[in-house]
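Problem: given the chain below (132 residues), write out its structure.
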Amino acid sequence: MNTTQPKKIVLLVDDDPDYLLQEKIYLEKAGFEVVTAVNQHEAEALLSQCEPNLAVVDLMMETPDAGFTLCYHLRKRYPQLPVIMVTAVNQETGMEFATATADERSWIKADAMLAKPIRFEQLQREIDRLLP
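Solution.
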């Protein structure tokens, strides 16, 4: 009898192919099945093929706010889906976003926000916190 649990699926969305590949390798090594997309529209199309257990979404992709829009659509379709937003917006624009309060999380539609560049250990901590 096979008692292994199915792998949890992580939707990883980022327009930087190097970052996407690096994080995909780390996540697979950590035991996840990883589905990748390079933009909001590709990610939304993937949702008809799989239901992720967690999403990691870049903020600035094909438009400066594509990540916010994608998070909104993810939450509309899967209200309980944990979402981690990763972004270099702080570095590039000086604008800061946070998910420390319920109010911030309600409009950002993400459970955590990590500033790029991130170490995989930071991402792993957030995944461990958000996935049971």
